[in-house]
Amino acid sequence: MTGRGRYTDDVRPNGLLHASFVRSQYAHADILRIDSTQALSLPGVIKVFTANDLLTICKPWTTQFTQVPEHRSAPQSPLANGRALWQGQPVAIVIANSRAIAEDAAALIEIEWEPLPVVATGAAALAEGAPLIHAELGSNILFEKKLRGGNPGAVFSEADIVIRRSMRFPRLTGVPLESRALIADFDPTQGTLTLHASTQVPHQMRSVYAAQLGLDESRVRVIVPDVGGGFGIKLHTYDDEMAVAASSMLIGRPVKFVSDRFEAFVSDNHARAHAANAALALDQSGRFLAFSTDDVMEAGAFSAYPRSSVLEGMQAVNQVGAPYDALAFDAHLRIVFQNKPHTGSYRGVGQPIGCAVTELLVESAARAVHIDPAELRRRNYRSAARSGNITLSGVDLGGELSQEACLDKLLDLMNYSELRKEQGQARLQGRHWGIGFASFIEATATGPMFYGSSRVPISASDGCSVRLEPGGTVSCITSAQFQGQGLEVALAQIVGDALRLPFEAITIIHGDTAVTPMGGGSYASRGLTIAGEAAMLAAVALRQNILNAAGELLETSSADLELSEGQVTVAGTDRSVTLSEIAFAMHYCQHLMPADASTDPMVTRHHASRRPFLVANGIQASLVEVDPDTGFVRLLRHWVVDDCGRIVNPMLADEQIRGAVVQGIGAALFEECAYDENGQMLAATMADYLVPMAADMPDIEIGHVETPVGDTLLGTKGVGEAGIVGASACVANAINDALAPFGAEIFQLPVTPERILRALGRIA
Ligand code: SMO
Predict the structure, then answer these.
(1) SS (HEC) of 42-78
(2) How far is the CA of 67 from the centre of ligand 1 (A)?
């Protein structure tokens, strides 16, 4: 608001050059000839590079990890090498004195193309005789998995009722306000590469760049200025970014690339893109017996690097039915290549799909058995005491969930029974209100994602150094990476609390691999729980050092000392020493401290979660009004009750939930990376890819159930994705509830006015 933010694009090193890309206009085509003559003759153009130029210093990469051998991808280069595999794939990079010149020059590059048959959908990828995107892999299947629990065949065939629905969830993308941005600065005199990057994962990026460019990690430094949103888009390493780094190495000058909005839509990773045939078997009394899903997910042309395109699919199937007890489970997942941008992480990673598949089935079942949907959920919620911690799909929930407490709180918050009456009255007046629910679990605070695979440099831990400054304030240097969540506020609270200092006395430093401890960074709702625990451990250790030093100054045992705001006192006396006196002693009089006393003014601690994740849970509800003449949906109210363990900062927790709910509403009603059958994107502008607007959004009321995690100091679980996991399902259910009197149901997102009118039979 004061104009003092500093984003990657605001960084302007001396000698800076600018990059622009020529991107493939075709979804699938051979590149016969590239002619850069005219482009190179434009004044201000420094270089034009194509695939082979960069391959001299940048190795191709293949996404793989040893723990999932059935996952396959193909080698990818910074620039399309002889063949383009999606519309938007970078083919040539122009380096010039200004971005404008680089763009003008890019337009002068002539490319002769030989278009190839396009695989534009998941179904097309699996069709008999489909063109192969990577012939050497022998099929278009990137990953296939079958999961089974109990005896689903028998349970489904003997069940009283089976709800079967075919569901469609489109490609989405994260649309961070700040697009992807990178400045690569290779210094040939030092052999060092410095990157200013808009990323969620500085240490991962350092590792990946070093490996691909043949540099030692100690020669690569990633600095992250302010980040204007990441949402998972900024977890991956992109071919165009690697091309920028390679170009800087070849030229020996800094090169900046800032993605414009149009190229963001065809080069940022996409996500979701599921077609699922799903079923729920239940008996007449409404007891759930089995869930199944057969999910075909789009991967795009390559598996995202280095985190792959697999996690979205796995979580989309293994969370189906997770909140409920059942006897059997059956899932089939196929993730397939097609000529589109790769799919990868986007806030929630598959969980919004697992939730939607489950919860859309549950409310269809409620209508079929004429049981109130809240009551039907209550009857079927899983109980660890009864069923253990592990779901039929193999997800370890780690203990009892608090689903009934969340439901009770939600029904109270929304005044449910009253609301149902109002809904009935509204209907009498010709107003079609719908109420929908979605129970959800959220796998948070991801620890060891790939179980120590040496190939994937993703750390299960985060680290924090705390330093007592000479004046008695504290600096907190964290491996957490901020992208607008407000995590720095929560870390300052944690450190301040442990050291009895006011919030203002804590300075947070982050976002520089040369300065901070190493750690995983920000994704999977892990920042507070992993990096916050590290900060807590470091602050507790520094507190002990402060007491040790104070003990020397006061000539007493540290066990007799009490730390209060800005001073240490001998318990039960008025003898005290101020924190700045202690700090002075720790910094300038260390030589007077006994050599064997721990009085270091700076300590570092790391925290690694030993579990793959901590499972949070909650429930959402939505009230909508549907106009059956226009198909327009008005969002009236939205409620969330979430259990993310102990809450450190209620305002931040609530706003994380609200922001993510809004993104989930976007997926429910507006957003779709629409493509035609030639793999041409139809929605590559903000006028076509509709993100939710503030004025369209309902008030979002939030409640919490707090079940602290037992084995950490903080007791927190993640909260950053809870909102998006449940919101789409909940809004879609509310619309289906409004449409129920018409006998219409919709199982395709986004639920647009057109789809509503079609479901109502008002248009063909
Ligand atoms: S999609 Mo998140 O940044 O793990």
Answers:
(1) CCCEEEEEEHHHHHCCCCCECCCCCCCCCCCCCCECC
(2) 21
